[in-house]
């Protein structure tokens, strides 16, 4: 990949051809023109999500030219925009689009290779993060109550004991997710749906203002999905910011007012009804198909000097 951050142009070798384009995308929601095209831009305007002066007074989370990479190979490529405080946003895209990598960067578990995530004055304890179920080890001998009570650690610290009030709140959280009386059960004995309910109960106890969910409804039953979606909508109704990586496009259309469609880069970001157009979804598939796995990070000004 050869990039010029002064002229905002980029050439990336795909499996068949090389392509150059101006990286400044039109305000939208917009998508890239049909075909495999790529950018190395520092100022992307998406569906009214342009940053003004690098900050937004109403944004809970702002992405500023964010690139996240594995061994200098970008999984998330030059994304700028903002998640408004109190918004309910889905992150969607083809397999390998960088969705989980992006939410890890927002959560702070992965560092940007370029750009930044601006969380404003949000403290770590005010951000609740639920990774994919496959990343959670259920073999450790923990009870359901122990697992849920971990949500209180951000507020009590590592050296203080849980109180009776915390035990009461744990019970209330389990009751809210439909697992009343499960406190003494081992997490290893639970079904996938029951375990996901436990993890949502832990988020309830954390009482976070920003909630990040990575594929929260994968491999669980329909009733659990329905119940947990009700909880997500309740969080949104309380003014919390909820960002979820999802695969089910119809589910997104029905329940998530805002959507970021990506394929390593942002394709479109804004109102779900406009973002999830047939044209934008086709562009996302094209981009995922033609992105070269050998593409490296764009050179920064510092690296070229």
From TrEMBL:
The keyword ATP-binding applies. SMART domains: AAA (SM00382). Residues 61-289 form the ABC transporter domain. It comes from Pseudomonas savastanoi. Pfam families: ABC_tran. Keywords: ATP-binding, Nucleotide-binding, Transport. SUPFAM superfamilies: P-loop containing nucleoside triphosphate hydrolases (SSF52540). The keyword Nuclease does not apply. This is Cation ABC transporter, ATP-binding protein. InterPro entries: AAA+_ATPase, ABC_transporter-like_ATP-bd, ABC_transporter-like_CS, AztA-like, Metal_Ion_Import_ABC, P-loop_NTPase. GO terms for molecular function: ATP binding; ATP hydrolysis activity. Belongs to the ABC transporter superfamily. NCBIfam families: AztA.
């Amino acid at each position: 990949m050869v990039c010029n951050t002064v002229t905002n142009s980029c050439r990336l070798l795909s499996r068949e051809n090389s392509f150059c384009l101006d990286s400044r995308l039109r305000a939208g929601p917009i998508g890239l023109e049909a075909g495999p095209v790529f950018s190395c831009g520092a100022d992307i305007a998406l569906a009214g999500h342009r940053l003004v002066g690098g900050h937004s007074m109403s944004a809970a989370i702002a992405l500023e030219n964010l690139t996240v990479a594995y061994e200098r190979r970008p999984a998330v490529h030059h994304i700028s925009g903002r998640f408004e405080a109190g918004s309910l946003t889905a992150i969607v895209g083809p397999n390998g689009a960088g969705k989980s990598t992006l939410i890890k960067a927002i959560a702070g578990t992965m560092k940007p290779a370029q750009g930044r995530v601006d969380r404003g004055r949000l403290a770590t304890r005010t951000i609740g993060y639920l990774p994919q179920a496959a990343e959670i080890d259920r073999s450790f001998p923990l009870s359901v109550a122990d697992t849920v009570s971990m949500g209180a650690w951000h507020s009590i610290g590592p050296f203080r004991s849980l109180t009776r009030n915390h035990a009461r709140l744990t019970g209330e959280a389990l009751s809210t997710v439909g697992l009343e009386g499960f406190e003494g059960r081992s997490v290893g004995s639970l079904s996938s749906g029951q375990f996901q309910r436990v993890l949502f109960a832990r988020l309830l106890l954390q009482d976070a203002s920003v909630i990040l969910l990575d594929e929260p409804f994968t491999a669980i039953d329909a009733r659990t999905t329905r119940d947990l979606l009700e909880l997500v909508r309740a969080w949104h109704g309380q003014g919390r910011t909820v960002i979820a990586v999802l695969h089910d496009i119809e589910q997104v259309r029905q329940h998530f007012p805002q959507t970021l469609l990506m394929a390593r880069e942002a394709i479109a970001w804004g109102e779900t009804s406009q973002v999830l157009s047939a044209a934008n979804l086709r562009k996302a598939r094209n981009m995922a198909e033609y992105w070269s796995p050998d593409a490296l990070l764009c050179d920064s000004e510092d690296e070229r000097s």
